[in-house]
């Protein structure tokens, strides 16, 4: 009867694990959200960098075309000055011709000399007309080039506006993608946490009669003495029985978890802080903890658990549960931890 009362006392409701699960879940969700935020910032910076390069390229082309336009305008001004000079010379020639014609009319003795001078002036006038015509042609060509440059500048400005519009659309899409990704990750975290709670609940039912098997936060903890002899990595018969129960629970849970959730069961090996001699099979506690975690993983694989759903890790004595310098603290620190998480 005393044993029955003790068992009823042990089955009192312990709210602490649930509280720790909730806090761990909240911390995991925050870490996922921070990761998504960093990822979105990275893609946004890459997109903005590409747009800035395009804008710099367009601005360089506009500056180059602006310089060409200024040069063409200067050439056009020079041609107009030349035409003005030629027109002034033409007016002078016309004045000389008029004076010579008057002299021709007044003095018949100077007729031949005047006619020769008129011929010379007529030739000069024709030459000036030809030069003036060429100058006008150059001015027309320059005007056409200026018009073409203005069209190119207009096209570049339109392309710049389109690029800026696309940049704004890209930023909007990235922000929307980040929001949707946050929602999806939050849903995935909630789903995984639900299955983790179910998994631990089943393990609690299966292994509830063992005092040295317990839940710490989001991990299921086996004391090393349950599974291994002292200093060894071969699972003892009692430990094999417990591990078979664990394998059955994992296989049952696997049928319920959706395939899109990429879950794994992480097996962590821990030792106490007593150093090994270094002359045995293992040189230090790192090797011992890793070998024990690997032994558990291999045993679960032999009992049907898929290898891609298992991870083995060794932590040596560097993640203790109890930092006291006592035999009880060292016994608590020698353990195998199981954690259901997402890859």
Biggest sheet: strand arrangement: 1-2-5-3-4
Structural category: alpha+beta
CATH topology of the largest domain: Helix Hairpins
Known CATH architecture of the largest domain: Orthogonal Bundle
Specify Rg, calculated over alpha carbons.
47 Å
Low-pLDDT residue spans:
none
Report the sheet with the most strands, covering strand number, pairing sense and barrel closure.
Answer: 5 strands, mixed
Got a strand count? 5
CATH class of the largest domain: Mainly Alpha
| SSE pattern, N- to C-terminal | HHHEEHHEHEHE
Topology:
Blueprint: H1 2-10, H2 16-106, H3 111-206, E1 213-216, E2 219-223, H4 224-227, H5 237-254, E3 263-270, H6 285-302, E4 310-314, H7 327-333, E5 335-342
Parallel strand pairs: 3-4
Antiparallel strand pairs: 1-2, 2-5, 3-5
Helix pairs in contact: 2-3, 3-5, 5-6
In short:
This protein is of the alpha+beta class and 343 residues long.
Question: What does this molecule look like?
Answer:
71% of the residues lie in helices and 9% in strands. With 343 residues, it is an alpha+beta fold. It folds into two domains: 44-188, Helix Hairpins, CATH 1.10.287; 207-342, 60s Ribosomal Protein L30, Chain: A (2-Layer Sandwich). A hairpin with a 2-residue loop joins β1 (213-216) and β2 (219-223). α2 runs antiparallel to α3 (111-206), α3 (111-206) packs across α5 (237-254) and α5 packs across α6 (285-302). It is rod-shaped.
């Amino acid at each position: 009867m005393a044993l029955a009362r003790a068992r009823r006392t042990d089955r009192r409701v312990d709210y602490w694990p649930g509280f720790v699960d909730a806090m761990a879940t909240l911390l995991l969700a925050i870490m996922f959200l921070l990761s998504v935020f960093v990822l979105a910032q990275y893609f946004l910076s890459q997109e903005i960098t590409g747009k800035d390069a395009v804008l710099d390229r367009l601005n360089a082309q506009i500056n180059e075309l602006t310089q060409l336009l200024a040069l063409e305008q200067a050439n056009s001004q020079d041609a107009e000055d030349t035409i003005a000079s030629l027109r002034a010379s033409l007016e002078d020639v016309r004045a000389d011709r008029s004076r010579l014609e008057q002299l021709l009319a007044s003095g018949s003795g100077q007729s031949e000399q005047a006619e020769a001078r008129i011929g010379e002036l007529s030739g000069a006038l024709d030459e000036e007309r030809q030069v003036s015509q060429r100058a006008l042609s150059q001015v027309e060509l320059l005007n056409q080039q200026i018009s073409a440059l203005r069209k190119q500048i207009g096209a570049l400005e339109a392309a710049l506006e389109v690029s800026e519009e696309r940049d704004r659309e890209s930023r909007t899409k990235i922000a929307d993608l980040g929001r949707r990704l946050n929602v999806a990750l939050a849903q995935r975290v909630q789903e995984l946490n639900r299955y983790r709670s179910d998994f631990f609940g089943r393990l609690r039912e299966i292994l509830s009669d063992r005092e040295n098997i317990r839940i710490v936060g989001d991990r299921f903890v086996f004391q090393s003495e349950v599974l291994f002899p002292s200093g060894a990595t071969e699972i003892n018969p009692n430990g094999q029985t417990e591990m078979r129960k664990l394998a059955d629970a994992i296989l049952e849970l696997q049928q319920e978890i959706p395939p899109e959730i990429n879950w794994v069961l992480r097996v962590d090996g821990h030792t106490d802080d007593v150093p090994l001699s270094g002359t045995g099979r293992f040189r230090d506690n790192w090797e011992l903890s890793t070998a024990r975690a690997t032994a558990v993983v291999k045993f679960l694989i032999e009992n049907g658990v898929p290898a891609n759903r298992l991870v083995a890790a060794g932590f040596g004595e560097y993640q203790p549960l109890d930092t006291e310098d006592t035999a009880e603290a060292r016994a608590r620190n020698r353990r195998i931890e199981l954690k259901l998480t997402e890859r």
